[in-house]
Amino acid sequence: MERVRIDCASQMLKESKMSITDIAMELGFKTSQHFATVFKKMIGVTPKAWRKQNMQR
Questions:
Q1: Alpha-carbon distance 54 to 43, whole Å?
Q2: Res 56 pLDDT > 80
Q3: Which has the closest alpha carbon to 23: 5, 46, 38, 2?
Q4: What DSSP designation does 28 have?
Q5: Between the CA of residue 18 and those of 14, 23, 46, what are the distances in Å?
Q6: Quick one: pLDDT at residue 57?
Q7: How much is the pTM?
Q8: pLDDT 10s digits, 2-32
Q9: Are 14 and 8 in contact (CB under 8 A)?
Q10: Total Cβ atoms within 10 A of residue 5
């Protein structure tokens, strides 16, 4: 289930101007810190770094 939420978060980070905190709350994470921890564990970088890398493309 977390993988699905992280995949959704990746899309939202790429396509949306929503803040990382708002994305975390929208996807049901209790805190943005928990979201960032899970995201980094699965993707290898923080949501902020991932967004920055993918917005440059």
A1: 13
A2: no
A3: 5
A4: T
A5: 10, 6, 16
A6: 57
A7: 0.90
A8: 999 999 999 999 999 999 999 999 999 999 9
A9: no
A10: 19
Task: Kindly tell me if the per-residue pLDDT of 39 is higher than 80.
Answer: yes
**Helices marked H in 1-46:** 2-15, 20-26, 32-43
Q: Report the amino acid identity of residue 23.
A: I
Helix axes 2-15, 32-43, angle to 10 degrees: 100
Residue for token pair 């990382």: 20
**Residues 14, 30: Cα–Cα separation, whole Å:** 22
Instruction: Name the residue with tokens 């996807």.
Output: 27
User: What six digits make up the tokens of 46?
Assistant: 């923080």
Q: How far apart are CA 48 and CA 51, in angstroms?
A: 5
What is the reported pLDDT for 55? Answer: 82
